[in-house]
Amino acid sequence: MARFRVLIVDDSSLSREALRRALEVDDTLIICGEAKTGEEAISLVRSLRPDLVTMDLNMPGMGGLKAIEAVMRERPTPIVVISERSSTSGVDLNYEALSRGALELVPKSQVFGAGDQDLRRFVERMRLLAEAGVEAEEKPAPTPPRPATSVPVSGERPLLLGIGASTGGPRALARLLSSLPRDFALPVVVVQHMAEDFFDSFVRFLRDASGHLVEQAGPTTQLSAGRVYVAPPRQELFVRDNLSVKLVPPPPSALISPSVDSLFFSMATALKGRGLGVLLTGMGDDGAQGLLRMRRMGARTIAQDKASCAVYGMPRAAAELGAAEHVLPLASIGEFLVRVLRESRPLPPPAPVETTPAPAPSPLRNSDSFSALTPVGNRKVVLVVDDQRPALDLARDTLSRAGYEVVTLDNPMLMAATLRRHPVSLLILEPELKTVKSPMLLQSARLHGLGQTPVLLWSNLGPDALAARARECQSQHALRKGDNAELIRMVRRLTSPRA
Fold first, then answer.
1. 11, 92, 285, 286: the active-site residue
2. Helices 63-74 and 38-48: crossing angle, nearest 10°?
């Protein structure tokens, strides 16, 4: 089993003790030394050659900032600043830490007095960052498979570049954006997992390090070429087809917000193939499913390669799904994006106006083809959203035989677009979706045409868990899967005029 050496730097003995106890829970993390000042930290980095350094900023003597600068100059090592939002004499210390080479900023609240879940996530981040600092034999990344359901890559000029990142993302984003020309012809939207206390420091760092106009996206933002917009903390950012922004608060149960998947799924829905998606370093798998949806719609998609990642988590998930058309080193991504713009063709002129009435569309049951949906006679339209294909097929066959017009969606992020275009009599939703939290999905849908439409939660969860999900989703109706007769009875009751 691989072991990784960690040096703890903090002038507080209580803080060093708390960090040591937290990190030693993971058998792969070995505390090789502790330092109380910046001078001690530099000396111990030279002699102990740790794989990871945790650094406090406010220390006597040299202090954390100068220590970071010296370490990165003499022996570059992954440095995680464990701090709070702080400034001294008008100096933003967290901004300065990023500027001088710190890889990651972690609030002290995630370590000292944190709950078990936050503490586990913190230790996992430290292990991954320590592992990233160890030189290992790199195997060539396999060519990502092309998804069987993808459409040909769009040759039309893209309208928007979306970028997602997490652990190690600030420096990767700064490097990528600085490689793009200052007059880059697209707006850029960035989702970076970042503690709220450090968000302002991060935006300022990204602006100064990249040379681009960088700002926080707001609820009335209209995206403009040549600008970089950063999704704000604790807000899900969605893009509309007119390149305006919609911000939606996440549900209380959300572990990560903003979510890269929210951005990518909305780009796939609103822009189809006219988007560019890039997934950079980070732990977990946020963004992989959204990038896959973008690729299936014909968009150009890129994931950062393992060798240039601080943590090869999110890009790995995308590559394994076949979501990335290209897996590229960080240094090559900017050049590729510029080439895509140069080689893309302009939007074709609009088609001539049809002078004869178009034939009435026939009912559709394709999960991604709903634009021509119309009710047949007095048949009620039921929308079923589930990321498991067998469940969708079962619901469609059962309810179609009962006389309902059924639309199925295996991509929950298309739900809002469906509701905007076509009224439905009932929404049937699997509350345990893999790519998005159901309360957040319903909150967004209620803003986009769901209105007073009844919602039936349909799941294999046990009775207690299903009742809890119903409360979270503010739905009064829930049913376990398996009883088709009861499904039909409940659908009839909820779609009747008296319901």
1. 286
2. 20
